[in-house]
Amino acid sequence: MAIDYAARRRYRHIDKFLNKVGPSTDPEFVAGTPTITALEESKVLVIGAGGLGCEILKNLAMSGFKDIHVIDMDTIDVSNLNRQFLFRKDDVGKSKAEVAAACVMKRCKDVKITPFNGKIQDKDEDFYMQFKIIICGLDSIEARRWINATLVSMVDMDNPESLKPLVDGGTEGFKGQARVILPTLTSCIECQLDMHAPRAAVPLCTLATIPRQPEHCIEWAKIIAWEEHRKDTILDTDEPEHITWLYEKALNRAREFNIPGVTYQMTQGVVKNIIPAIASTNAIIAAACCNEAFKLATTCNPNLSNYMMYTGDDSIYTYTFEHEQKPDCPVCGNLAKTITVNPNHTLRQFIESLGERPEAQLKKPTLRTESTSLYFQSPPSLEEQTRPNLSKRLGELVADGEEIGVSDPAFTIDFKFKLVFQA
């Protein structure tokens, strides 16, 4: 593909890195046209077109990438307008991916951005195989775990093109992180899961009897009301109908106890554990992510190895370290993860603990040993058949050191745990 050098005046700041060899460039780096062409032909997927995604799309377009794809299932809400700068008031209710793509292409006319309005889970492996780099700007741990497991499962050792680098960014208020994951070669998101511990749970007695905050009413709707009224339906926090149902139940609960403040946006935030985003943090983390994507596409400098954390609440501080791959990682490892348990606890207590343990965070687990089924969440017939096991002690159901298989409908993989009894 011939390069239009007149059009590349926009990228003269980038070409300073691409037109000459530097002290840290890869040995195979070729300065000039070959690298510029490789950059322009790199097909990149951005997952998420929210606060982080808007910054990433803008940065990629200004960094010389010409073939960008973006996927997001959300529509624009008025609350997004204070930080998701590609959107305007007239865009409220429209697809985030479509509006973001159109806005960037209007400014950068030589860039093609293809939007997809939908869930990442609706796309198959062939879809993800077409991209050179995948960049995540998600606000959901579950979605990160899903794409991580999918990219690891795609790797074919006989086909180097099947390894798709994942650049993941995340922000929480004034804190954020950027990381580079080379599936099967480096630490993956599941290896690092214990760094994203779930928030402390509100006691059930408070939710059931004396809620004091609007968040308590929302948690009540999610944990108690859903179980009572929609037990056979798996709660999908990305499904608008499910969020609306929870919001209406929480609102009625709040009115009953004269608690103001329950809104649809708050319901989304509590159910998905979303911490309000800050525009400056998004900008910093997005810049770090796009810097890594640029280095991966051009080999002009070594990529991050492999985790950068940032905090800006007290001062501006960054720290980079290499997170090690775990042999017992359920996604990229080959050993069962060891969990210490109390043999006198019931199976029900163990299942509840899987949602709270930082290394597991499984909400609807189905459990089995090599020889027997411990508990099935569905179908109803199997749930009823295995339900008596919930009240039995772990010591009655499994042996000390025995491995169990655990599956969860939110993930594409099965988890293996080795249960070690407390002395």
Brief summary:
This protein is an alpha/beta fold. The protein has 14 helices and 13 strands.
Report what the structure shows.
With 423 residues, this protein is an alpha/beta fold. Helix content is 35%, strand content 16%. It is built from 14 helices and 13 strands. α3 runs parallel beside α4 and α3 crosses α11. The longest helix has 20 residues. It is globular, with a radius of gyration of 23 Å.
Total number of strands: 13
Rounded average pLDDT: 87
| SSE-based structural type | alpha/beta
Q: What Rg do the Cα atoms give? A: 23 Å
Properties at a glance:
eight-stranded mixed β-sheet, 35% helix, alpha/beta, 423 residues
Topology summary:
Elements: H1 12-18, H2 33-41, E1 43-47, H3 51-62, E2 67-72, H4 96-107, E3 112-117, H5 125-129, E4 133-136, H6 141-154, E5 166-172, E6 175-181, H7 204-209, H8 214-229, H9 240-256, H10 264-271, H11 279-298, E7 307-311, E8 317-321, E9 337-341, H12 347-356, E10 366-368, E11 373-375, H13 380-386, H14 394-397, E12 403-407, E13 414-421
Parallel strand pairs: 1-2, 1-4, 2-3, 4-5, 9-13
Antiparallel strand pairs: 5-6, 6-7, 7-8, 10-11, 10-12, 12-13
